[in-house]
Write a structure and sequence with these properties.
Layout: E1 11-19, E2 22-29, E3 32-37, E4 44-47, H1 48-78
C-alpha cells in the first residue's frame, strides 16, 4: 500500500455537495483536507484530528438520542 505522506500525485475529489450553486472540491493533504468551491480560490483547511473529533461527537450525539428514544418508548409502554 502506498504511504499517503509520500504520495506524488494529488488526490482531488469533486463532491456532490453544492454551496452557492458551486460543487465543493476536497483535496487530500498529509495534514488534513483543503476544501474550496469549484471556480474559487478561497480555501478552508481542516486537520485529520479535527475531522475525527467531530465525527466522534456526532456519533456520541446519535447514540445519546437513540438511548433517549428507547427510554421514552419504555416510559410510554409502562403507562
Amino acid at each position: 500500500m502506498t504511504d499517503p505522506l509520500k504520495r506524488k500525485t494529488r488526490l482531488v475529489i469533486l463532491t456532490p455537495i453544492e454551496v452557492h450553486n458551486r460543487p465543493i472540491i476536497a483535496e487530500v493533504k498529509p495534514w488534513g483536507l483543503e476544501l474550496r468551491e469549484k471556480g474559487r480560490r478561497f480555501r478552508l483547511g481542516i486537520a485529520w484530528g479535527s475531522i475525527y473529533h467531530r465525527a466522534a461527537e456526532i456519533a456520541a450525539d446519535k447514540a445519546k438520542a437513540e438511548r433517549r428514544a428507547k427510554q421514552e418508548a419504555r416510559r410510554k409502554g409502562n403507562k
